[in-house]
């Protein structure tokens, strides 16, 4: 029996609203995403890309787990407000360590990450108690966090950047993979995802809000680049093209998919937690990560519109939007919305266009960005044309 007053009242799903405390918590990620994109901007190489992916996934996982946690605990209760505030401070410490996470601040990054996971997990075990099935579920999750934490700390202690990268990547494989195995432990029954009582619409709204934050980061980057390099016609055109590119990505999701996804997950039955994990925890991670890549590509295009397209720029400018389209297609597929082929076709077109760019065709960054913006606009228009008219 759940008697802890920090738990939300479980009634009709529509009563589980996103609170101001949750929105305030998300503000940390404005800074965090900026730090990640800055790392990619300064390290546009294969190794730099892998490092950026690890840093982003390490940010996304605590955020997504906190979004799930506030599905059950009430952010308007004082203990939960205190918890979120402490998590914010630790998240800021972790984000501040990102520029040197693969140098001398690796241990700070790892310890902050581990503290986030253990503190929130321990709070959830206390909130539900051992007698509740959800409390036992969180206890198993807590055990796996501690196991993966050994790898995080070990990676922070080594001095070789590539070794640290490999160890942290392994830790992420554990943390992202064990939910699919039910947090299985020796002598303990695996957790059945169906036992997680989830208010799906709440999780959907939380993921959509953080996706909007990632779009804010792209706007911040394009604005900074335009402020620093304004003065030429090519720069002005690149600025407009960059905005069109971002706008096309935004419309694809928020005009054609967002509201329907909330309605869909809010109306499913027993499988809501499985759907939420697939379409939102994992699927939206792809889109948010893609936004960060797009932000760097647009920054570079505005900065040097007449520069010849390099392999790294081709990967950023074409791969980022292709990854975003893949994320939308995955989300549509899992939610059963159909018509996932337009974004998949768009992603394939971008990847095909990347072949000549990667082979050294003398294209400028402005031309490449214009082609990408055109493809994305066509995909968005196709989706809009196939939308059913409002009743």
Which helices and strands, and how do they pair?
Blueprint lengths: L19 H7 L1 H15 L3 H24 L8 H19 L9 H23 L4 H25 L3 H17 L22 H30 L3 H22 L3 H10 L4 H32 L7 H25 L5 H18 L6 H21 L6
Helix pairs in contact: 2-3, 2-4, 2-8, 2-11, 3-5, 3-7, 4-5, 5-6, 6-7, 8-9, 8-10, 8-11, 9-11, 9-14, 11-12, 12-13, 12-14, 13-14
**Rough outline:** globular
CATH architecture of the largest domain: Up-down Bundle
Number of strands: 0
Q: Write down the CATH topology of the largest domain.
A: I/LWEQ domain
The description of the largest β-sheet is: none
Structural class from helices and strands? mainly alpha
Domains, number = 2
Helical fraction equals over 70%
Oligomeric status of the shown chains? Answer: single chain
List keywords for this structure.
0% strand, mainly alpha, single chain, 2 domains, I/LWEQ domain, 391 residues
Describe the structure.
The chain has about 400 residues and is an all-alpha fold. It has two domains: about 180 residues, no CATH class; about 190 residues, I/LWEQ domain (Up-down Bundle). Helices cover about 75% and strands about 0% of the residues. The protein is built from 14 helices and no strands. Helix 3 packs parallel to helix 7. It is globular, with a radius of gyration of 21 Å. About 50% of the residues are buried.
Structure, briefly:
With 391 residues, the protein is mainly α. Helix content is 74%, strand content 0%. It has 14 helices and no strands.
């Amino acid at each position: 029996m759940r008697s802890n007053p920090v738990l939300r009242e479980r009634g009709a799903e529509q009563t589980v609203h996103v609170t101001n405390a949750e929105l305030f918590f998300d503000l940390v990620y404005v800074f965090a995403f900026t730090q990640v994109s800055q790392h990619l901007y300064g390290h546009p190489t294969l190794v730099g890309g892998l490092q950026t992916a690890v840093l982003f996934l390490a940010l996304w996982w605590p955020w997504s787990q906190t979004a799930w946690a506030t599905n059950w605990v009430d952010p308007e209760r004082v203990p939960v407000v205190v918890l979120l505030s402490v998590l914010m401070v630790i998240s800021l410490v972790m984000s501040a360590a990102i520029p040197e996470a693969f140098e001398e601040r690796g241990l700070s990054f790892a310890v902050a990450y581990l503290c986030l996971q253990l503190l929130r997990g321990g709070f959830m075990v206390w909130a539900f108690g051992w007698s509740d099935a959800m409390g036992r579920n969180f206890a198993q999750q807590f055990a796996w966090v501690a196991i993966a934490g050994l790898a995080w700390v070990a990676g922070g202690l080594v001095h070789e950047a590539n070794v640290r990268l490999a160890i942290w990547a392994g830790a992420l494989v554990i943390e992202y993979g064990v939910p699919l195995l039910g947090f299985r432990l020796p002598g303990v029954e695996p957790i059945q995802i169906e036992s997680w009582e989830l208010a799906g619409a709440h999780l959907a709204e939380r993921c959509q809000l953080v996706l909007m934050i990632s779009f804010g980061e792209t706007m911040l980057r394009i604005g900074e680049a335009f402020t620093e390099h304004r003065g030429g016609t090519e720069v002005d055109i690149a600025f407009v093209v960059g905005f069109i590119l971002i706008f096309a990505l935004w419309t694809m999701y928020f005009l054609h998919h967002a509201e329907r996804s909330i309605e869909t997950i809010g109306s499913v039955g027993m499988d809501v937690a499985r759907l939420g994990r697939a379409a939102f925890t994992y699927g939206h991670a792809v889109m948010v990560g893609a936004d960060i890549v797009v932000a760097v590509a647009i920054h570079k295009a505005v900065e040097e519109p007449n520069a010849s397209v390099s392999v790294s720029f081709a990967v950023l400018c074409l791969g980022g939007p292709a990854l975003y389209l893949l994320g939308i297609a995955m989300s549509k597929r899992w939610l059963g919305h159909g018509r996932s082929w337009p974004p998949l076709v768009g992603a394939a077109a971008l990847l095909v266009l990347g072949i000549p760019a990667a082979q050294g065709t003398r294209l400028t960054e402005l031309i490449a960005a214009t082609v990408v913006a055109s493809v994305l606009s066509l995909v968005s228009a196709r989706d809009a044309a196939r939308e059913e008219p409002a009743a």
